[in-house]
Write a structure and sequence with these properties.
four-stranded antiparallel β-sheet; about 280 residues; Hypothetical Protein, Haloacid Dehalogenase-like Hydrolase, Chain: A, domain 2; five-stranded parallel β-sheet; Rossmann fold; alpha/beta
């Protein structure tokens, strides 16, 4: 029987306006009344996710930035896990990205605001992403000037996937010291994130299981994109949203008939609650 439901934010719990619907809220409250715990596992940083965690009033470990950061709820004073990317690796990725003319975003610190450093705001298929996060962006002359000696949180690359893969090949970052996560794809561009060692949503989920004492079969996961693939394999029951790519859907135990704009999470939760009736 499911005792913990872990949910992704963007494309899953949030609609395209970045809001949690009343129907989703009602379903989550119903599950809590049944004794099921709710947590969040997101690729978002603390800065961009904390308002949602506070809205949900979560009093449980929460996974941020694909597992690089785990906090108890939204309390930044209760850090349970914090993994940084080595400065030399970060600099190497930035340098190679420039050579390939790939857009690069640097996240220096988990709690700094503004938290996104970029040399220019590009006109790409991700234009709405940059526009929606304009308040978080600091435009600078040279990203390398902001790579501190104690490491950075993340380097994100956005551009044609073939070019990003060239950066990966040239820097040799597929190693135990760097975690590479494909987030999503829009048209002919993809968004990849580079973190320190052992950063994946699945590792975050296993941490939640460890502190809660739940077995794999007692945990469900609801997600919608490529960075959810690894964690779906670690959940006893995995759900993909209707709006998820086909490559993600085929790895799920259940696919909702509703999208994130149609409160698909509420449908997924009701499916999980069937085991309680």
């Amino acid at each position: 029987m499911i005792k913990l439901v872990v949910i992704d934010l963007d494309g899953t719990l949030l609609d395209h306006n970045k809001r949690i619907s009343d129907e989703n809220i009602k379903a989550l409250k119903k599950s809590v009344e049944k004794g099921i715990e709710i947590s969040i596992s997101t690729g978002r940083s603390y800065i961009s996710a904390k308002d949602y965690i506070e809205e949900l009033e979560l009093d449980i470990p929460v996974v941020y930035q694909n597992g690089a950061l785990i906090l108890h709820g939204a309390d930044k004073n209760e850090i349970l896990r914090a993994i940084k990317l080595n400065s030399n690796h970060a600099s190497s990725i930035v340098l190679e990205a420039k050579k390939e003319n790939v857009n690069c975003v640097l996240y220096r610190d988990f709690f700094e605001f503004p938290d996104m450093y970029i040399e220019k705001i590009p006109d790409t298929p991700y234009a709405s992403y940059y526009e929606n996060n304009h308040f978080r962006i600091r435009v600078c002359d040279n990203l390398l000037d902001y790579v501190g000696n104690d490491g950075v949180v993340e380097v994100a690359l956005e551009g044609p996937e073939r070019k990003i893969k060239k950066v990966v090949e040239k820097t040799g970052v597929f190693s135990e010291k760097v975690s590479v996560i494909k987030n999503n794809t829009i048209k002919d561009h993809s968004f990849y994130e580079f973190f320190g060692p052992e950063v994946q949503k699945s590792i975050g989920l296993n941490y939640l299981r460890k502190v809660s004492g739940y077995s794999k079969n007692e945990v469900a996961y609801i997600g919608d994109n490529y960075n959810d693939l690894d964690v779906m394999k670690e959940a006893g029951f995995s759900v993909a949203m209707k709006n998820a790519p086909e490559d993600v859907k085929k790895h799920a135990d259940y696919v909702t008939s509703k999208t994130n704009d149609e409160s698909g999470v509420a449908e997924a939760v009701e499916k999980i609650l069937e085991g309680f009736d």
